[in-house]
Specification:
The protein is an alpha/beta fold and 281 residues long. The chain folds into two domains: 119 residues, Quinolinate phosphoribosyl transferase, N-terminal domain (Aldehyde Oxidoreductase, domain 3); 151 residues, TIM Barrel (Alpha-Beta Barrel). Helix content is 44%, strand content 20%. It has eleven helices and twelve strands. Helix 9 links the parallel strand 9 and strand 10. Helix 1 packs across helix 3 and helix 4 crosses helix 5.
Length: 281
C-alpha cells in the first residue's frame, strides 16, 4: 500500500507542478524560511496528515512536519493540527496538493463518523462502497476507517459480490452462487460470497445457497425486519440503498449487521482546512 500511496502523491504533484511553480520561483528565494500551520475552520475528524506529510517530504525531505492532533482525532474550529517548517518555497509548492488530500480525507472521515455515532448503540457497522474517485480508492477507504467505519471490499478481486446483473445473466441466484463456489474451488480461493436481494423470495433462495452475506437492496425498514428475522443469524446481513444520515438509525434498529453508504465517498464535502504560512526571520 505504501508504494501505491507514494505513486498517487507523485502523480498529484506532477499534475500540479509540471515544469515548475513559477509564481513561487519568481517571488521567493530558496534561502527564505517559513512556518506553515494547518488551521481547522470547521468541526470534524482529521484524516490524511500522514499523506500530507509525505507530500511535503517528496517536495523537500529537509522540511520538518510535526503532527499535533493525530489522524482520526476530533477537531474543532481554531485547532492547529500540524506544522511544517523549512524553506518557504517548498512549503508553498506542496501546499495545495497536501490540502487536497487532507481536506477530502477529513471530509470523508467526518461524514463517516457522523453515521457511525448515530448507530453506536446498535450492532450495525457502517461500510463504504466502490463509489470512489478513480485512482484514490485506498486513500478514500483509509479515511472511512479513520472516521469509524469499515471497508466493504477494496475491489472486484477480494470478494464475490453477486449483484442483480450477475443474477440476470446466470439465470438465478442459485446458479450464480454455485458458479462462484466452483470458481473458488478451482482457483483455490478463500473469499466471502455476498448476494444482493430485492425481495423476500430472493432472500429465501439466497439462504438455501449457504452464502456469507445477504444484501438487502432498497428494502423498506418493515420488510428489512422481516428479512432479518427470516435469516435469523444464518449469515451476516447488509442493508444498502438510499440510506442517509436521517434514516440510518431506523435501518440499524432492524438488526442488520452492516449498512453500506455510497455517499461517504461519492458525495463528500471537503472539510475546511487552511495552511497559514509565516516568515521565519
Amino acid at each position: 500500500m505504501e508504494s501505491y500511496i507514494e505513486e498517487i502523491i507523485r502523480q498529484a504533484l506532477d499534475e500540479d507542478i509540471q515544469s515548475g511553480d513559477v509564481t513561487t520561483q519568481a517571488i521567493i528565494s530558496d534561502e527564505v524560511l517559513g512556518r506553515g500551520k494547518f488551521l481547522i475552520k470547521a468541526d470534524g475528524v482529521i484524516a490524511g496528515l500522514n499523506i500530507a506529510k509525505n507530500v511535503f517530504e517528496m517536495i523537500d525531505d529537509k522540511l520538518d512536519f510535526k503532527v499535533l492532533i493525530p489522524d482520526g482525532g476530533k477537531v474543532k474550529v481554531g485547532d492547529i493540527v500540524a506544522e511544517v517548517v523549512g524553506k518557504a518555497s517548498s512549503i508553498l509548492t506542496a501546499e495545495r496538493t497536501a490540502l487536497n488530500f487532507l481536506q477530502r480525507m477529513s471530509g470523508i472521515a467526518t461524514l463517516t463518523n457522523g453515521f457511525a455515532e448515530r448507530i453506536n448503540y446498535t450492532k450495525a457497522k457502517i461500510l463504504d462502497t466502490r463509489k470512489t474517485v478513480p485512482g484514490l480508492r485506498l486513500v478514500d477507504k483509509e479515511a472511512v476507517l479513520l472516521g469509524g467505519g469499515q471497508n466493504h471490499r477494496i475491489g472486484l478481486f477480494d470478494m464475490f459480490l453477486i449483484k442483480d446483473n450477475h443474477i440476470e445473466i446466470a439465470g438465478s441466484i442459485t446458479n450464480a452462487v454455485n458458479a462462484c463456489k466452483e470458481f473458488q474451488q478451482k482457483k483455490n480461493l478463500k473469499l466471502r460470497i455476498e448476494v444482493e436481494t430485492k425481495n423476500l423470495e430472493e432472500v429465501k433462495e439466497a439462504l438455501t445457497c449457504n452464502v456469507d452475506i445477504i444484501m438487502l437492496d432498497n428494502f423498506k425498514t418493515d420488510l428489512m425486519r422481516k428479512a432479518v428475522a427470516l435469516i435469523n443469524g444464518k449469515c451476516k446481513v447488509e442493508a444498502s440503498g438510499n440510506i442517509n444520515i436521517e434514516n440510518v438509525k431506523e435501518v440499524a434498529e432492524t438488526g442488520v449487521d452492516f449498512i453500506s453508504v455510497g455517499a461517504l465517498t461519492h458525495s463528500v464535502k471537503a472539510l475546511d482546512i487552511s495552511l497559514e504560512v509565516e516568515l521565519i526571520k
